[in-house]
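Quick one - inputs below.
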Amino acid sequence: MADPLPSWNDGTAKKSIADFVGRVTAKGPDFVPEEERIAVFDNDGTLWTEQPYYFQLAFAFDRIRALAPKHPEWKDRQPFKGLIESDLKAALATGEKSLLEVIAVTHAGMTTDDFSRIVTDWTRSAHHPRFKRPYIELVYQPMLELMSFLRANRFKTFIVSGGGVEFMRVFAEQVYGIPAEQVVGSSGAVKFERAPDGSVALIKEAKVEFIDDKEGKPVGINRFIGRRPIFAFGNSDGDHAMLQYTAAGAGPRFLGLVHHTDAEREYAYDRQSHIGKLDKALDEGRERGWTIVDMKRDWKLVFPHER
Amino acid sequence: MADPLPSWNDGTAKKSIADFVGRVTAKGPDFVPEEERIAVFDNDGTLWTEQPYYFQLAFAFDRIRALAPKHPEWKDRQPFKGLIESDLKAALATGEKSLLEVIAVTHAGMTTDDFSRIVTDWTRSAHHPRFKRPYIELVYQPMLELMSFLRANRFKTFIVSGGGVEFMRVFAEQVYGIPAEQVVGSSGAVKFERAPDGSVALIKEAKVEFIDDKEGKPVGINRFIGRRPIFAFGNSDGDHAMLQYTAAGAGPRFLGLVHHTDAEREYAYDRQSHIGKLDKALDEGRERGWTIVDMKRDWKLVFPHER
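Output:
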């Protein structure tokens, strides 16, 4: 049989994946019925790059610039000011919640259909500052293989990300093979409106509704998926609660962390990073024997274009 | 080929279903790719009986009685008082939102796992006052056949109900063949907690978070499914917005309403009913040529046990 994980170097990580899938799919004490084979993946830093800043922030950055002429008040207010002036440090200094607010603002006042079109256009036109490629090409080839391998073994794969759910859904099927309805993420409020002419639409409002990060991840899993995963993969402390919740179920569990150790092919960061900080989850992962992927050592390729 | 809808009498309704499925699955101008074949179904009154009151209310009724000794303050407060004293009229008079609050209260202060166990026990022990059968047997055989028929044609079937999502998920797979992650419904807040001993759990809180009814249904569809259905079935004005939202998409659409016209085998009610009021949606359905199922005329059987 062809190796289902050709971009993974032989080693503990690859072996632990193959062992787990073998155990839960073969008849025996660890067998898990198909409907319980729920696998959840963080997105930023786990399925695609998140440096030098979250890709959705790059999208918001581009949108802020496009919308700035209509919002003179942004000029003097962080984090808008920083985004407009390309002073990312100033913008990022305002913290995650305020960034989600920016995202809500740049994503609001339009129908859900219009928003999807704007995101689609952006995925085609925008390029990553270092890799000079469309953002949706900066996905991890080994993780694509892993998700395909799981699906071939009758797992259902879900994204569970702090990113905006409507943003990710635009490209999740094309890029990851994950349908819209298997994407869980943060969201803004949406309102159903009937126009005087009888037409109806869903309008995106400038209000953060749910933040699917940290302790919000198990909550989001419960709300959207409605059962506890047996397989979870993340890369930061934002995924810690999701990994703990997955680990706490009965029966066999797989807990994985992508450790960014490869400054040459991608980035190297962990405990000190503003974006994708990996500290407590790394400690618990080492203590409990979770699968910690050393990007430099464990991945033969990082991106599909390296082939 | 065996008739996939044997419990449907020949007529407009059965024909419109077969025609629609034929059109969107055959090569031609109306073909719809598999991933877009999203079908949504209301639950109460569309997939199972909702009279003399929503089954989840019967569950809440039983729970209120079980919990009442610990809540002396309920004795003097509606709708608790009415539920405890079996004075449903008084309890129902307080309106839907307050009933959802009761449901939140009777469903809170426990882990999500404990709640699932309580609901499971209830589905096995409780019986419908008129039919003297477990509630989960009072599902509509023709609708079970319809959902199987759609799935055989590569539709993905979802429940989109005003009922509680965690309540329905307990039995949706067993009863309807719909997995937990394809159930959309109302929800209470849930909190992730780490106990001092290191264990983690999701705790249900006594706070309504989202009401998946009326204008909330298209919002729920957008939030949980993330794409517009091409097929929607409901039975009341609570489903009107969902039907309108489904109808407003481009390409072929199927809009269906179950009209309860059979007092003998089930119930007969529409415009004047407190529960499952069907008025405006019936008018629009007739005007626009939606498929309106006349239960008495169109269904050979109502419940599986009639076979």
